[in-house]
Design brief:
Strand content: 5-15%
Distance between the termini: 39 Å
Radius of gyration: 17 Å
Number of domains: 2
Order of helices and strands: EEHHEEHEHHHHH
Number of strands: 5
CATH class of the largest domain: Alpha Beta
Largest sheet: 5 strands, mixed
CATH topology of the largest domain: Conserved hypothetical protein from pyrococcus furiosus pfu- 392566-001, ParB domain
Helix content: 40-55%
Number of helices: 8
Length: 179
């Protein structure tokens, strides 16, 4: 997949519609939103370096973000006139943005040291987002089953059967839009 680094105004960054659910799961990884961490601009710059935004450029110059979701909500804390780096990929290189977002988030998660509770919460959610065997085995031949993924991730496969209660945003509850 070819990509180019482009600096895009923060105000011109938006999440691709089909990726919103995955983005919310990543934002709420610690049962509190990443944007609630109140990182300094310097810390956000470091986060973007470690986990860059990946986007598809739209005709109007804006970017639909489809990867690097760990940094997305941190970037949104920056001033809208600030330019941030985005790895821009051609539209044709990503057949399904939702699958790409789930695959990249799962690989990112597996590469980082995370606690068991977070792993058993987020890995099954991302696994389900991948939808079919082909999307899963593109990442690793071990990902043909929940058992293979659980073994690779070092988590109990029986935890996959448990449905997770989605994180309830207190902000939405105050606004009356909570489910």
């Amino acid at each position: 997949m070819s990509s180019k680094l482009k600096y895009v105004y923060n105000r011109d960054i938006q999440v691709a519609k089909s990726v919103e659910e995955v983005a919310e799961a990543i934002a709420n990884i610690r049962e509190r939103r990443l944007d609630a961490l109140e990182f300094s601009d310097q810390a956000i710059d470091l986060a973007i370096t470690l986990s860059p935004l990946i986007g598809m450029e739209l005709a109007n110059g804006k970017c639909h973000i489809v990867g690097g979701l760990r940094s997305l909500y941190l970037v949104k804390q920056l001033d809208g006139s600030r330019k941030v780096p985005v790895l821009v990929v051609p539209h044709e290189s990503i057949a399904n943005p939702k699958i790409f977002a789930a695959q990249s988030a799962l690989v990112d998660l597996l590469m980082r040291h995370i606690d068991g509770q977070t792993a058993t919460t987020l890995i099954p959610l991302l696994w389900d987002e991948l939808e079919d065997r082909e999307n899963k085995t593109q990442l690793s031949p071990r990902f043909t089953s929940k058992s293979g993924l659980a073994e690779a991730a070092g988590i109990n496969r029986r935890k996959f059967a448990k449905k997770i209660k989605p994180f309830q945003s207190e902000f939405l509850a105050l606004g009356g839009d909570a489910k």
